[in-house]
Predict the 3D structure of the following.
Amino acid sequence: MAKEFRYYPKKHLYTINGRPVPSVTQIIRGIFGEFNNPNAEWYMQRGSAVHLAIHLEINNKLDWNTVDPRITGYINAFHKFLKETGYKTHISECQMFSKQLQFAGTADVVLKDEKDKLILADFKSSIDPVVDLQLGGYSLLWTQNYSNVIKKMCAIELNESGQYKLRWVEDAYRAERIFMCCLQLYNWKLLNNKN
């Protein structure tokens, strides 16, 4: 896998056999666009910092002395979520690709419930229903990279206050199918230079 799949974090670029492929997020943004937010750069930096801090915390490598106080609440919200649900982390920042479908992505976290069933989860600072499609894309990637099945998916809205909210994907199969439509439309737009 290492030879054919590469991720370049500074460029947020995925390649399969040296050829750039779109990420799940790029595909979703290519279809639905982004909100026109004058502070978008700050929110992207904050989101990256929160994701990295949680990933380091999960792997017992977080140095709290290096944590920006502006993101402490988000990390606390994740701790509260784990404590209240009883879920355990299985893997975080899971990079995956599909050679067949030519796209890639990084799932925020895969959790285990009390029966050791897997739950695919994505962190958000606010939840939009389109997150179902994003999770559908990650679910497709998971299926092509791992043998164990994921049947439950959710978005976890982490708040600065240390609180969280959940959005469960009610129909994982439907989310995957709609994501596949997005992938096909994204590729069509690229092929035909449509904006």
Observations:
- The chain has one domain: 5-192.
